[in-house]
Amino acid sequence: RRPPRSTLFPYTTLFRSLEGIIPALESAHALGMLPKMKFSPDQVVVLTVSGRGDKDMKTYLDNRHMADNKF
Asked: Is the pTM for the entire model greater than 0.70?
């Protein structure tokens, strides 16, 4: 299940600022789901970021107001 866009964009902003990568929207949905999942302290999470977020720039710009939400 993919998260609503209102939870999607704050994580893409965080990822962009920490990693310098604009994730494609498909990968951004995975970023948005991570906080909702439960992991034990000994588990390692590997998330691959695929696609080209630059192709999604219009969507990012049209929804940038959602990036101000707290995560």
From this structure: no
